[in-house]
Write a structure and sequence with these properties.
By secondary structure, this protein is mostly beta strands. The chain folds into 3 domains: about 15-25 and about 145-330, Jelly Rolls, CATH 2.60.120; about 30-140 and about 335-380, Jelly Rolls (Sandwich); about 425-600, Exo-inulinase, domain 1 (Jelly Rolls, Sandwich), CATH 2.60.120.560. The protein has 1 helix and 40 strands. It starts with 12 loop residues before the first strand and ends with a strand.
Length: about 600
């Protein structure tokens, strides 16, 4: 019997912020193409001159992967086909939601090592810009936690913990877990309210020093209230296991099993794909094995990271985690895709843009997926929280349309520098109009953020890590990639306990500049339709907002559409999504993407 795990053994739980428990012991693609890398999106253009494009990517046998395409402009209707290493079609894309602006190939299994490819084609003479990405596991990017960037949506919240037997803390841009006692399994779960059923999770793992024994891995489908979970662990004895803990006893789902693919590398990557009661395990992108839980102990829950020691161990175990990636399904894996969809994947804007000159798209740098050296995905921009925040009183519908106030000066109705991409040029022009003072600087810069929800009314996703701002110029590029009629995309700002302001554009061509005080719109609020606002799904609108004491102004695509006095406030900023209801009270999933967010503070 393996002395590390005795199923009938005992459990000790220590509750000091975190938990510490004593455990029971290659062939080419059909058309070649540009190489894709895992989690690194590319942009491209399909038109009459270039009706299709092909990309290749490397996979190891039994790796589960997905491909997602999203339309960024035009009337493009894209078709996707994935080919295996022998050039045989193995998957076709299907649209998510009613709009058809997102197409996915969900959770394919690579039948062999080799070079795979995906072809994206424009259907029926349509044309436009698209984005494309290969994902590990499923096609919805839930989390990409590097433990140091200010990506509130992709990062999770990890509270330090300490006890007599273990400690966990954020150190040098990673999560460090220490186990100081023998026969102890320590785990730390994010403090966010997160729940998954099916998922793929992977993490970079570093073993510090040369401990005599160590374990690392994940808790899956953890129920914090009852302390039930699955424990997927690998060890320094080059083996792995899957255990179920019911709150008092341990049960083996997969006994400790040696694998020639698990090595004693001290810098490695471990991954687990979960679908229903199936668990597929990976070490450095290599398929280790799989197991089914025929008892179906748990169906959902959160995750945790693990570090463990052996019985009678006298030395300390220190394990560092970084770059935790979690993906989940965008669509059902059997039968017809549903019409509602589960939300757009965490689309990133770090892709290399491609001009409409017929050139093939090119990927950004990085190691290919499944490379022999193991991959380390680059940090990606932020995505939304699983659930939007609703911490204060929110009106459920926009205000009634009003006449647009005229600016207080004849100058400044057109902002010539609106499309320059230069904060200093835009602020300089506003200073020339007399709208802002001299001085100041950019104190907030977010390349991309996302909001994805079907909750009716206003929903927001915090930015800026809780910092407050009072006098500033705020700029962002807004587009609704997936939306129902009349829904909106923008930002709120000056948010405090009783008040906040909103700058937003809507799918049907309206704009909103508002202040909400104790759940009521300020009388100066502006909501109307403007020719300056580009309407329709995927349309891009560049927004500039000036907030200087009582005066607030809003430009859309260089046109001044609102200027009036509101109550001067200080507060935080956030991405804002408005989801409209139809006559039956129904909503449609709305995906708002903001690019090039910057705030110039005075």
């Amino acid at each position: 019997m393996d002395i590390r795990r005795v199923v009938a053994g005992w459990l000790v739980v220590a509750l000091i912020l975190g938990w510490a428990v004593t455990p029971i012991p290659a062939q080419a693609s059909p058309q070649g193409g540009t190489q894709l890398r895992l989690l690194e999106p590319v942009n491209g253009v399909l038109d009459a001159a270039t009706p299709e494009a092909t990309y290749s990517f490397e996979l190891n046998e039994e790796l589960v992967f997905s491909v997602v395409e999203w339309n960024r402009s035009g009337d493009l209707v894209a078709e996707l086909t994935v080919f295996d290493a022998n050039g045989k079609a193995m998957g076709e894309g299907f649209p998510i939601g009613d709009s058809g602006t997102v197409t996915v190939v969900e959770a394919l299994v690579a039948p062999s090592d080799g070079t795979y490819s995906v072809t994206v084609r424009a259907s029926g003479g349509t044309a436009g810009e698209y984005g494309l990405m290969v994902m590990p596991g499923y096609s919805f990017l839930d989390k990409y936690d590097d433990f140091e960037s200010a990506d509130e949506g992709l990062n999770m919240t990890w509270e330090p913990s300490v006890s007599n037997s273990s400690a966990s803390s954020l150190v040098n841009g990673g999560l460090q877990m220490q186990v100081m006692a023998s026969d102890t399994l320590s785990y730390l779960s994010p403090s966010d309210d997160l729940t998954w059923t099916d998922l793929y999770i992977e993490a970079a793992v570093e073993i510090e020093g040369s401990p005599s024994y160590y374990e690392y891995g994940f808790l899956l489908r953890l129920y914090p209230d009852t302390t039930e979970f699955y424990a997927l662990s690998m060890s320094s004895q080059l083996d792995w296991t899957l255990l179920y803990y019911d709150g008092s006893d341990w049960f083996e789902v997969m006994p400790w099993t040696e694998s020639p693919l698990i090595t004693d590398d001290t810098n490695l990557r471990v991954g687990v794909y979960v679908q229903g009661n199936l668990f597929k395990v990976y070490f450095n992108d290599q398929y280790v094995g799989e197991v089914e839980d025929t008892n179906n102990y748990l169906s959902e829950g959160t995750i945790a990271l693990v570090a463990a020691s052996a019985r009678d161990q006298t030395d300390q175990v220190t394990i560092n985690y970084d770059n935790v990636v979690i993906t989940s399904p965008n669509a059902p894996l059997a039968g017809e895709p549903n019409g509602d969809g589960a939300g757009l994947t965490g689309i990133l804007s770090t892709a290399t843009a491609v001009a409409g000159d017929g050139e093939k798209p090119t990927p950004s740098s990085g190691l290919p997926f499944g490379s022999s050296s193991g991959h380390k995905p680059t940090t990606t921009p932020s995505a939304p929280d699983v659930k939007p925040t609703s911490a204060f009183s929110l009106p459920t519908v926009p205000p009634i349309a009003t006449d647009t106030p005229q600016p207080q000066t004849s100058d400044g109705t057109v902002l010539e520098s609106w499309n320059s991409g230069s904060p200093s040029e835009i602020v300089g022009e506003l200073e020339g109009f007399g709208f802002v003072p001299s001085g100041g600087s950019v104190t907030l810069n977010v390349p991309t953020s996302f909001g994805d929800t079907s909750s009716s009314g206003f929903n927001f996703y915090p930015l800026g890590q809780g910092r407050t701002f009072r006098n500033f110029v705020l700029s962002f590029d807004a587009h609704l990639d997936l939306t129902g009629p009349e829904s909106g995309c923008g930002m709120h700002f000056r948010n405090n306990a009783s008040s906040y302001s909103i700058g937003m554009v809507t799918e049907d061509g309206a704009a909103l500049l508002a202040q909400v005080n104790d759940g009521e719109f300020h009388p100066a609020t502006v909501f109307d339709y403007f020719s300056a606002v580009n309407s329709g799904q995927g349309s891009l609108n560049k927004v500039v907002i000036v907030a200087l004491e009582e005066m607030m102004l809003m430009y859309v695509n260089g046109q001044l559409i609102a200027a009036d006095e509101f109550t001067a406030q200080s507060g935080t900023v956030a991405l804002e999504v408005f989801v409209a209801e139809n006559d039956l009270g129904q909503t449609q999933r709305t995906y708002c993407q903001l690019d090039n967010i910057w705030l110039w503070e005075f």
